[in-house]
From TrEMBL:
This is DUF302 domain-containing protein. Gene3D superfamilies: TT1751-like domain (3.30.310.70). Residues 35-98 form the DUF302 domain. It holds the Pfam family DUF302.
């Protein structure tokens, strides 16, 4: 099982972040958190890192279904989406594969939730590569 659903886009970094947020919104995901990991590491420990943002995306109906099956599933929510500079003019966008949630919990009740989340996240990521 792959850890991520991913694509690489040719775009300025800030544009890729904006496009990612828009693609997620088209699939019913809001961005609850945005962590600028490169800025945080620079500030806290002086470490240099390429542009790297972690978006905490949430689809409320899917989140509700998931916590209805397993209250501890909140430990794996929201779905993390990473936008990171990956080369000369390219940006990699990666979403956590929701199937990991099923594998970690081994709860068959989460299968339909993970399948729908996978479909929606894959559509958002695919839209970036189009």
């Amino acid at each position: 099982m792959e850890l991520a659903i991913a694509t690489t886009v040719t775009a300025p970094f800030d544009d890729a972040v904006s496009r990612t947020k828009a693609a997620l919104a088209e699939q019913g995901f809001g961005v609850l958190t945005e962590i600028d990991l490169s800025a945080t590491l620079k500030k806290k420990i002086g470490a240099e890192l390429e542009d790297y943002v972690i978006l905490g995306a949430c689809n409320p109906p899917l989140a509700h279904q998931a916590v209805g099956v397993d209250r501890q599933i909140g430990l794996l929510l929201p779905c993390n989406v990473v936008v990171r500079a990956s080369g000369e003019g390219t940006v990699t966008v990666e979403a956590m594969n929701p199937q990991v949630m099923v594998q970690v919990t081994d709860d068959a009740g989460l299968v339909p939730v993970a399948e729908e989340a996978t479909t929606r996240l894959r559509a958002a990521i695919d839209a970036l590569g189009a």
